[in-house]
Amino acid sequence: MTAFKALLAWRPKPDTNAAALSASLAEAQAALATALSRAATLEGQRGDVLLDATPTEAEAHEARLGDAAAEAARLSAVVAALPARIAAAEMREREAALDTLAAGTEALAAEGAALLPGIVHALAAVAALMRRHDDLAAKVLAASTELRAGGREPVALPMRLAWPDAGNTTATMFGFDLLDHGARTVFRPAPGFDPGRTLANWVAAKIG
Q: Of the N and C termini of the chain, which has fewer Cβ atoms inside 10 Å?
């Protein structure tokens, strides 16, 4: 096998990943160190061989020295070229990862968008129930005012019937506090959102 055919083993495929290229770089660096050491040893022996060896032995030594130097030069070129290949592979892998992230994020956004019609419908139904409750509560409050004026006990507001804790010391709010109270929800929205529009505050306003 010629030296150039042996060098084919160091040629990466176009789609070789960065990790494999980095491993090749480490191997090439180790092989370069070996080739440089061999060339240095042969160079150190060169003078004595030229003075003492037979012409055939001297020619063989010169050939080995030339091969070692050429091998070191080739490996040095490979070591110099591989970092750029590694950087390009890392860029390809980063772009592929971003493509995957973008596709996954678009799918999440589409899934969220598909929920919105149902959310709007549900909120409309909740708003209708809240308006109905408020109308009833207003009537109870007006009637209780008249009852109190007549010396009678007022009737408890609807929310107080459902939540009789007059001291407001009960932790639960019909399960509202058991739900996720993270930011940007109707229970605890982002700063700047009208706090009067949260369900928790609506409940607090209706217990009287």
A: N
Q: pLDDT class for 179, splitting at 50, 70, 90?
A: very low
The helix (H) or strand (E) run that includes residue 27 is: helix 18-52
Residue with the two structure tokens 């060098």:
7
Q: Which residues contact 158 (CB under 8 A, 6 or more apart)?
A: 133, 136, 137, 140, 206
| DSSP alpha helix (H) spans, the chain | 3-7, 18-52, 55-149, 158-162, 199-206
Token representation of residue 157: 């507001």
Q: Please give the structure tokens belonging to residue 39.
A: 């060339």
* Cα–Cα distance, 122 to 133 (Å, whole number): 16
85 neighbors 21 (Cβ within 8 angstroms): yes
Rounded CA-CA distance 127/130 in Å is 5
- Tell me if 155 sits within 8 A of 147, measured CB to CB: yes
| Predicted confidence (pLDDT) per residue in 184-201, tens digit | 444 444 455 455 556 666
Three-state secondary structure call for residue 187: coil
**Per-residue CA distances from 129 to 55, 123, 126, 136, 208 (Å):** 109, 10, 5, 11, 19
- The whole-number average pLDDT for the span 148-160 is 89
Question: DSSP E strands: which ranges in the chain?
Answer: none
Query: Tens digit of pLDDT for each residue in 60-101?
Result: 999 999 999 999 999 999 999 999 999 999 999 999 999 999
